[in-house]
Amino acid sequence: MSKAKMPERKSSRRTLVLAFTLGIACTLGANALMSTARANQPFMDAALASLRAARANLVQAEPNKGGHRDRAIELVDGAINQVELGIAFAAGR
What we know:
It is a single chain. By secondary structure, the chain is mainly α. It has helices at residues 2-39, 42-60, 68-91. It is 87% helix and 0% strand. Helix 2 (42-60) packs antiparallel against helix 3 (68-91).
């Protein structure tokens, strides 16, 4: 009776390994496609990097600007969000 169960167990293990391997392959393939879509947007990526650098500079600036520094940070945060949304939208096409 235990000999009859052995082929079934090997088959189940083989199926599990195959499913796991297929899952990893799909994940890697999806990541490659997303990277390609993102890589085709050099100007959006550059804009995002510049906005993040501008935000970092604003945060380091003295806060004695009558609230204008804080407002600038809010506006840059909004711009960062819009660029990220644009990149995500283009990647979804």
